[in-house]
Amino acid sequence: MSIREIARSLYELKRQVEEKERALEGEPPGERRDWLERDLAKARAEYEKVKRVLEGEKDESSTGRRP
Questions:
Q1: pTM across the whole model
Q2: What 8-state DSSP symbol labels residue 1?
Q3: pLDDT score recorded for residue 25
Q4: Dihedral angle over CA of 49, 53, 56, 62, nearest 10
Q5: For the chain, which residues make up each domain, given as ranges?
Q6: By CB neighbour count within 10 A (0-12 exposed, 13-18 middle, 19+ buried), where does 63 fall?
């Protein structure tokens, strides 16, 4: 996957995280809020995972090394 594709995925994930955060803001305590919190945690984890991949790709391209 190219750096551009990874960056595009990261942007989309960031947008999803922000959308889920907004949905959670006004939600009263209860089962739906619990579900939204778990969903948000998953989205944040995926965002961080892709972010680390992108940072690794940028490091590899800047040093000229590829596995």
A1: 0.81
A2: -
A3: 95
A4: -140
A5: 3-58
A6: exposed
